[in-house]
TrEMBL record:
<dbReference type="Pfam" id="PF22939">
    <property type="entry name" value="WHD_GPIID"/>
</dbReference>
<dbReference type="InterPro" id="IPR056884">
    <property type="entry name" value="NPHP3-like_N"/>
</dbReference>
<feature type="domain" description="Nephrocystin 3-like N-terminal">
    <location>
        <begin position="5"/>
        <end position="80"/>
    </location>
</feature>
<keyword id="KW-0677">Repeat</keyword>
<dbReference type="InterPro" id="IPR027417">
    <property type="entry name" value="P-loop_NTPase"/>
</dbReference>
<protein>
    <recommendedName>
        <fullName>Vegetative incompatibility protein HET-E-1</fullName>
    </recommendedName>
</protein>
<feature type="domain" description="GPI inositol-deacylase winged helix">
    <location>
        <begin position="195"/>
        <end position="266"/>
    </location>
</feature>
<dbReference type="Pfam" id="PF24883">
    <property type="entry name" value="NPHP3_N"/>
</dbReference>
<dbReference type="InterPro" id="IPR054471">
    <property type="entry name" value="GPIID_WHD"/>
</dbReference>
Amino acid sequence: LDYLLPKYNERGAELFKSFDALWTIFMAAAADKSTGRKYCIIDALDECDRESQNTLLQQLERSFQSQDISSNFRILVTSRPYSEIREYLEGFPNKDLASFSERQQDIDLFIKEKVADLAQRKKYTDKVKGQVSDILRDKAKGTFLWVGLLLACEELKGTASQRAVQTLQSMPKELDSLYKKLLDTVLNQDEVSHDDIRRILSCVAVCSRPLTVLELSEACRLHQDEEGAETRVQFTREHIASCRLIVIIQDDKVLLLHQSVKDYVFRALADYFPDEREAHANLVYRCVDLLTDPDQSRNSFLDYAIRNWPHHALMVQSTFEVGSRAEFFRIDSALREQWLQ
């Protein structure tokens, strides 16, 4: 607070709109030796949106290439090894996490605990318990994500002990193949609308911030005929549950299980799902529709639409067609003036 309050008193709430100003305060506080050694962990940098990622990488490069950096402050960054990230960080000490032997020990412990829980629920014999553990270790390829996804879904929880080994042996090792198998299961359910699943996945993949369940319902136009918000939220939760953990809910925020889901949806399912630009286009159309409809003043998605439609319009580029929404984009548009206010 000694570093933050003087700047806040000078600039007020505007201070929090400037990344550079906040970074300067952060670095000054971190370098203060009187408060002891400090560590900062930036986890999964690759999951940031590209603009935020570049801003942060540039600041890290400028700040930590200096020889004057305080010796009592360290930052640990974790990320998948994408080339655009390596360009900035390869000049700093780095390590491939796969090279740590402790990682496999942690995965083995994770599998042991999860299988013990399954064994108790499904009454596994010691033989089945050992076989399940061995298959999980073999197929995990040293990643928590594969094991966690498989064990969290219903593949084993809903499988009798006599079929547990057979079920696991049929599961693919590669994440793409596992995602495909899970999605195929989703789309083969008669009660699930394929269009709804497409809208949910593409919306969650490109939204600027995590949406609440009710916001997602509004963004994807789910259950519009239901008047009560409580009912719409419950029905939307059921849609999300049908996505078999590819989409999850944390603290009422809807998220993709992992960044690799987004990569898979837009890369491997191009014939079935809209591409990334089209997903942004669908979202900006929905945002502008809300901004031009006076009856939507209490819509839960309106705040998101007000703040984020320009971002989605920028990401769409030439794919965006004004069409029936032309009034909002006229030079003397009263609707846009209202948005600006």
